[in-house]
Amino acid sequence: MAKILLKFSESLVGKPIISQIIMKYNVPINIITANITSKGGEFLAEIPDEILVKLVKAFRKKGLIVTLPKLIDIDEKECFSCGACITICPVEALVFDKDFSLVFDKEKCLGSTCNACVDACPAKAITSG
Ligand code: SF4
Ligand code: SF4
Question: How far apart are CA 15 and CA 20, in angstroms?
Answer without folding.
Answer: 9
